[in-house]
Structures are given as C-alpha cells and as structure tokens.
Amino acid sequence: MNKSIFSLLFLSLMLAISCGTEDDLEKNDIIEPEEIAECLVPENGIIKLRTIDSLKDFLITYKNCDTINATIIVEFIQQIPDTLVSNITYLNGSLLLSGVSQNVDNLQVFENLIKVEGNFGIGRSSVKDVKGFDALEYIGGEFRANENYGLGELTGFNKLKTIQGDFVFNKNSFSNIDGFASLEKIGGEIVFQENFKLNSINGFESLTNSSNIIIQDNESLVSINGINGPLKLNGNLLINQNELLQDVNGFNNLVEVNGWLEISSNKKIERITGFEKLQKVGGDYFKIIDNEELNIIPLFESLNSITGPLMFRRNNLTILKGFNLLESSGGININEEEMSDITGFNSLVILNGELNLAQLPLKLVSGFNIIEQINSGLYLTNLDELENVDFLSSLRNITGNANISNNELLTDVSGISSITDIDGDLDISGNDILTEIVGFSELTNISGELAIIANFSLINISGFEAANSINNLRVFSNIELQNFSGFNQLISVQEDIQLLNNPKLINVNPAFSILSTIGGDLDLDGNNLSNLNGFGMLKSIGGSLRIKKSYIKNIDFFQNLTSVGTDIIFSSNYELENLTGLSNINEEIDYLGIARNPKLSICAISVVCEYLASGMDNEIRLNAFNCNSSTEILANCN
To answer: Is 603 in contact with 615 (CB distance < 8 Å)?
Structure first.
C-alpha cells in the first residue's frame, strides 16, 4: 500500500470515528462468524475491531488461522482483557491503530504477530503505551505514528528487525522513544518531527541501514543518544530546529552518509560528540550552521571523503581541529565570529571546491598546510586577526578567484607566492596595514584580473616576474603606494591596465619591459607619475589611452606605439610639454581630448592633425600656446 492510499485510509477512519455511533459500527463493521469460511476475509479486504464483542467475534472466527490476507483496523475504545489473544502470526496486509482510546493500556491481543506484510500505523490514538507486539519482527511497508496526542510511551518492539518502508513519528505526545533495540534495517527514511513532548531518542543500537534520518522541530527534545548501530545511510541526515536540544551523543558507529549531512538552527545545543567512525558524506554538503551555543564538535578523525562543501557558520566554535584523514572535499566554508584557531586537515591535498574563510578572529592557522590545488576559488576575507597566509605555502593552483581582502592586521601575503596558476581573478584589497606585495615569482597565469585596491598602507608592489598572461590589471586607491615594478615577462594584457588614484606613485619602472599589446584601455589617472619608461615596448592599445593628473614631462616612452583603438585623452598633466612620443601612431582614432595641460605646447603630430582635420568632436583647451585650441594645432600641422 503506497503512502497516499495509507494517508487516505487514515483520513477516512477519522471521519468514521467522528461521525458514527457504536451501534452503527456493530451493524456494519463487525465480522460475524457465519460470514467467514475458514480464514477468508470480506471482499473489501478490511477487518475493523472496536469493541470487546467485535474482538471476541474476530478471535472466534479466526481461531485456527495463523495467516490472514487482510488489513486490520483497530479502534478500541475500552480496556482489552489480557486473556483475549489472537493466534495470528502473519498478516498479509496492514495493521492500523486508529483512534485507540486512553482507556486501553496494552494491545497484547497481537502478541503472537511476527510479520506484517503491509504498513503498521498508529494514528490519533490516546493509548497509554503501545505494548503487545513483542513478537513482531518484520513490517513490509512503513511504520508510521501520527498525531497521537495522548500517547505516553512507545516501547515493546524489541524483536522488530526490518521495516521496508519509512519509519515516521509526527506530532505525537510521547516523551521518549525506546525499545527498538533489534531493528536493523529501515528501507525508507526515519522521521521524528513535531513531537512536542519528545525529550530523548534512544534504543536503536542495531540499526545498520536506512535512507534519510530527519529529526526536526521537536520542541522538547534534549538529547539524541541511541542511534549507535553500524549504520550506513543511503540518503541524508538532518537535525534541525530542535529548540531545547543540548547534546548529540549518538551516531557513534555511523559509517556512511551517502546524501548530505546538516545540523542546523538548534538554539541550545552545546556539544556534538560521536561520529567517530564516519568515513564518507556523499551528498551536496556537510554543514553545521546556526547553532548559537555550539562550542564542541567531534574531530571526525575517520572521515576521508566529503562530496560537497564542508560548512561551519554562525555557531559558537572557537577552535576547529581534526579531519586529519580527509583527502577529498567539495569545498570548505567557515564563517565563525569566535573562531581563533584552525588545525588539522593534514591529508587534504586537492580541494574540489572553494576555500572560504570569512569573519573569523583567526590568530593561528596550522591546518591546510599541504593543500596544493583549490578547484573553485580562495576567499580570505574579514579575518581581523590574521597576520599572514603562510598556512597556504604548498598551494600551486587555483581554479576560480583568489580574494584576500579586508583583513585588518594582515602584513604579509608572500605565503602564497608559490602559486603558479590562477584560473580567475586575484584580488588583494582593503588590507589596512599591508605594506608590500612581493613574491609570486612562480605565478605564470592570471586568466581573470589582478586587482590591488584600497590597501591604505601599501608602499611597494614588486614581483610577478613569471607572469606571462593577465586578462586585466587594476591598481586603485592605494594612497601610500610609491613603487610599482615587475611583470617583466608579460607580453600582452587581454583587457585593461588601470592605475588610478595612487597619489604617491612615482614610476612604473622597471615594469612591463616587454609588454607589447593591451587589448583594452591604458588608463593612468590620479597618480604622481613622472616616469613611464616601463611602457617602452608597447605597440598596440585596443581601447583608449588616457593619462590624467600626472607629472610626466614627455611621452617619448610611447615611441613604439602604432595603434590606439578608440580615444586619446591627456588631461591635467602638470609638467607635460609635448606629444611627440605618439608620432608613430598610424591608425585613426574615435575621439581626442587634450585639456588642462599648462605646459603642453607641441601637439601637431600626425594622429592629432588628421583627427582635427576631419572635423570630429574634440576637447582642446587650457593648454599652453600652440596647443590651446584646434585652430592653433592645425596651424602648425604640415
């Protein structure tokens, strides 16, 4: 019987209970002895038991039957004498307890029942204890207890070994679950949900197999201690929103979770222990998040494989250690406001996802020290106590972006200078006391952009001597930056080079000594540049050439430049005297702007003359004589 039929049957029963009278039930539902020949059942395959008389009739009718091919629905409303016991051992159907009264304190009528081929259900019942199933070993469908608001205890299933379907407890009033010590296999999922008085889960010492385990929204649950069998989960493990849960001390023999694992939003939980034999988490993630009081977790010293990312967020963890056999993970994401120490991860060489450490007061990181490859990005952000990145000294390759930003006490990034390839961006920004960026002597490729932005104490950028490919270079708003050198193997930049608002930057020499091509813009604005000799080999700029607010006297260093794709703009260059360095440009441009260069008097070069002669839009003003208007320049053109 599938779940929908099972649920529909429960609903029908509830309506019958609320609308029918005992006389109606006796007339229509009681199975009279003369209606049955041998062990035959009604045509609809359903037997209902509600009163003692109906039970007596049932026992008489089926006294010689150890097997019945029917579904039995039990609706007892009065105490059942211990002497009334059925001989049935095998039920080829379902057994449903529906609306059983609080006057009933046992169900020993079924004490010989060994096997139920269909579902076993307890619904909307107030029976004090579900006793009387001490012989039951097998359920071929699901075991479901729903909306039993008066049910006190759930014990007496100590021989039950197999449930082929789901094992579900939803909206019940019992305080503990115990007595499933022999249960080995659950073919479906285990669900404990919205059981408002449940305070402990115990008694699953033999469980070896299930799909999912869901323990969720049990508002009185304090501890989970008893799921300690040698368990392999074919699905997920979720422990979520149990407001009073303080301790998870089960799962000591859990070996595998082939789905995801999540422990989240349990406000009072302080410690998680166990999981000492867990070797694998195979789903989308392994996350322990939003447990506000959680300060102790296991070492997970047997865990060697996590398919998805490992996540710790918004708990109360101060130290993370262990995971020393972990060889494969789909990423590591840690965001913990109190965590100052990370150790362990001593077997992790390749990370098949991102390494993301954010908003941690990290002082000591001795983990991750043999990682060589990160396959989805490196993010070290808002680590207020971090001083260096030496823990990544073995790192060679990053697929994805590398972001080292907003780390208040960071003084040294040379710890990742052994890296050879970044298949994404490298962003070093907002590190307030970082004074130099040096090294990266083995880095050959940055397929995205190199961004060095708003490091307010940064004085020196040097290195990157092996870099031969960068997509985009941006150096912005480093207010103390004075020296920029390196990049002397770089032949081309696919997009832009932008050096902007670095007011103390004097020169970029030696740098870019063999750079010949910029695919986008060369934009130099708001620096203190007096020397651009580093661009002496540049031949082509695919976008615009913009030089603003500098102290260069001439642009002779552009003598090899033959092509600018769009605009040429010189503005507010306070010492600039001539533009003769652009004399070899032999292609047309889209726009010309020459303004506020007070010493500029020589502008009549071919690219300027040809553009002005075409009559196209321009800005020529506030320069020295002979360059103060388009008319003056054209008058000096040959």
So the answer is: no
